[in-house]
């Protein structure tokens, strides 16, 4: 089980948001002030993946404003990542995305996050880490199923809310909504006011 446990640290080659290739990108050194989203995708130069990566990149500032860094990972090399970033979107590339892409050539990172499929590629795993590296949320999609990046932003908001207020977030909670006290009275009070909206 990964959720509630600390993510296993890793150091690997990566292409940074500024296009620089580094050999020693470290997970724990790159967690934002309030957390990180680590997401896996199968391969560079494929089909569903660019839509997800571009969607993450378009929302990178929204994550950053919340103190959360985004980190992408696949089994491709840092050189493949770099080439894909340098390929324009209209030619099947992803353009110069606003977060690092990690090279998991040995597939060990995918194994550690339990997303390695058939010893070949990573499934579409998305992991929300707290500031201390604790995995608070995880979702894993099969290869053909693209993920919803706005839902990950919502989950970031729920984590930040519960961290700050100590309350829990009921079904469908969005930033600005009322939380729920985690006791019998809190549940009754919340449901009395909000049951029709569930």
TrEMBL record:
It comes from Malaciobacter halophilus. This is 26 kDa antigen. One of its GO terms (cellular component) is cytosol. Residues 1-161 form the Thioredoxin domain. Keywords: Cytoplasm, Disulfide bond, Oxidoreductase, Peroxidase, Redox-active center. The keyword Disulfide bond applies. CDD domains: PRX_Typ2cys. GO terms for molecular function: thioredoxin peroxidase activity. Pfam families: 1-cysPrx_C, AhpC-TSA. InterPro entries: AhpC/TSA (IPR000866), Peroxiredoxin (IPR050217), Peroxiredoxin_AhpC-typ (IPR024706), Peroxiredoxin_C (IPR019479), Thioredoxin-like_sf (IPR036249), Thioredoxin_domain (IPR013766). The lineage of its organism: Bacteria, Pseudomonadati, Campylobacterota, Epsilonproteobacteria, Campylobacterales. One of its GO terms (biological process) is response to oxidative stress. The active site is at 49 (cysteine sulfenic acid (-soh) intermediate). It comes from the Bacteria. Belongs to the peroxiredoxin family. AhpC/Prx1 subfamily. Thiol-specific peroxidase that catalyzes the reduction of hydrogen peroxide and organic hydroperoxides to water and alcohols, respectively. Plays a role in cell protection against oxidative stress by detoxifying peroxides. It is found in: Cytoplasm.
